TrEMBL record:
<protein>
    <recommendedName>
        <fullName>NAD(P)-binding domain-containing protein</fullName>
    </recommendedName>
</protein>
<dbReference type="InterPro" id="IPR036291">
    <property type="entry name" value="NAD(P)-bd_dom_sf"/>
</dbReference>
Length: 284
């Protein structure tokens, strides 16, 4: 793999320099020191997360971890954004770990665009690739991207001296999270995704993380994409439903900053939390 490199966007906030970082106290967020990491930070959902996080005064440091440089969306203040480029989400060299150190929370936004050979036009939402295209890739590579890398990332955070009440929010798919149940279609893939969610929560419990799986259904909004538009219409007719990406991002940020209501947040939870968060942001 090519060497991981750091790309700094804007200015580093003085209180987040990792050379002399100390363990943050449990009330560090209340004191105004909130360091948030967004992993997989180049997708359309991540772009909305970054936009909203930059507007939140309670997020004082934002690290965008991605396989390509990330810049602040147009019109947003980049002063508290740092872009960190990583060549492989399964490997975390010391220079990358240094940038993750002392984090209060992480939002892990998984996308199949992490596959180097995947054409960007095929990606949409969080599932990342349509079922017919999924079959074009070896399943062990899909497992590596979806499951192995996620657990490697959690291990890396554990090794970087995170804040005592570190929160890890994993963005799952809308299907039932039970690896023992046989789904009606995409059996191997969906069982693996359910197993990943179970492993994320189990790892967090074992290592004293707070963890949550967000299951937002199909997300609408963002730049116009014909495939996403059609899929949004289809998902509206299914039990999984759709939500605007702005609502999903607001809900996930609210939970990452203030704490998780429960281990699984479904579409109705995210709609309620996100709608309230957007209303409250308009009052600030």
């Amino acid at each position: 793999h090519p060497r991981n490199e750091l790309v700094v966007t804007g200015l580093s906030h003085p209180h987040i320099e990792t050379e002399s970082r100390q363990v943050q106290s449990t009330d560090s967020i209340q004191a105004g020191n909130m360091k948030l990491i967004i992993v997989g930070a180049s997708g359309f959902v991540a772009t909305e997360l970054i936009s909203q996080a930059l507007r939140r005064p309670d997020v004082t440091s934002l690290v965008a971890l991605s396989r390509k440089p990330v810049t602040a969306p147009d019109g947003e203040n980049a002063a508290k954004l740092k872009s960190v480029v990583i060549s492989d989400y399964g490997e975390y060299p010391d220079d990358v770990k240094k940038e993750l150190a002392g984090a209060n929370a992480c939002i892990w936004y998984e996308s199949f665009s992490q596959l180097q050979s995947l054409p960007p036009a095929m990606t949409y939402g969080t599932v990342g690739i349509t079922p017919p295209n999924l079959r074009k890739y070896p399943f062990d590579e899909v497992v590596r991207i979806c499951q192995t890398n996620t657990l490697s990332g959690m291990k890396a955070f554990r090794e970087t001296n995170p804040a005592p009440e570190f929160r890890f929010l994993y963005m799952g798919d809308p299907f039932e999270a039970d690896s023992e149940k046989k789904p009606p279609f995409m059996i191997e893939y969906l069982q693996m995704r359910a197993e990943t969610e179970e492993k994320v929560l189990a790892y967090a419990r074992e290592n004293k993380f707070d963890a949550c799986v967000a299951k937002p259904g199909f997300m609408t909004g963002g730049p116009f994409n014909p495939l996403r538009t059609v899929m949004g219409l289809v998902f509206r007719l299914t039990p999984f439903g759709t939500l605007p990406v702005q609502t999903v991002a607001a809900a996930m940020l609210d939970q990452a900053v203030t704490g998780f209501e429960k281990e699984h947040l479904g579409i109705e939870d995210l709609k309620r939390i996100g709608t309230k968060a957007i209303e409250e942001s308009g009052k600030r």
